[in-house]
Hints:
Elements: H1 2-26, H2 42-54, E1 59-65, H3 66-69, H4 83-86, E2 89-95, E3 101-108, H5 118-130, E4 133-138, H6 147-160, H7 193-204, H8 206-210, H9 215-221
Parallel strand pairs: 3-4
Antiparallel strand pairs: 1-2, 2-3
Helix pairs in contact: 2-6
Amino acid sequence: MAWTALALVALLAGVLLTLARRRDREGPTTDWVVEPVRLLAPAEQELHAQLRAAFPQHVVLTQVSLARLLRMRRSGGSTRVFQPYLRLAAPFVVCSKEFMPLIVVDVNVTTDAARTSREQRKRAAVVQASGLVYLAVRAVPGSVPTADELRQRVRAALQAKGPRTPAATAPRAGTTSKAPARAAAIPAAAPSPAAAASATVRRLFRPLMSRTTTPGRQAKAA
């Protein structure tokens, strides 16, 4: 009797599995209720328009998965730590014409500018580690930054990154270095991936930065 019961259970399980697979192959069923969802709220739509106005020569994408945006070249630890970050999405990404990402714009839908979610903090950490420009912007009605404000924030973010490579300190004329001569043969340290990415961002944004006129230069020109 026990063997007969086990056989019946196995047969029933096989039938149910076959039916489930057949249903999967058939695709959507009539009991599905599916509808499209708006990708951007009204304030986010306004932010998208301001980004396009701020960077008319660039491509502005929305809701881009970090798995398509970033990749890990190497890691000193376990790469599994990086996997949860790839499940996040960037609200807005400004790219070059060649679709090279340059700026990630995060969105805060609350009126409290100091309040950030855990997801935003994780997104900021991984984007900044890549060398891309990261901006956190409030997208609430009446508080969407203008195109000029967005450009100014990007310029400030690029300037805050500092020079691409530190300048070497040359010895003064008439003085001799106390370091041994063989030290000159030591090659310079290779730039980190974040520094290399920052250099790429600067190169692609060079036309924008060259059009920037500082207040000091304006006064001198006057």
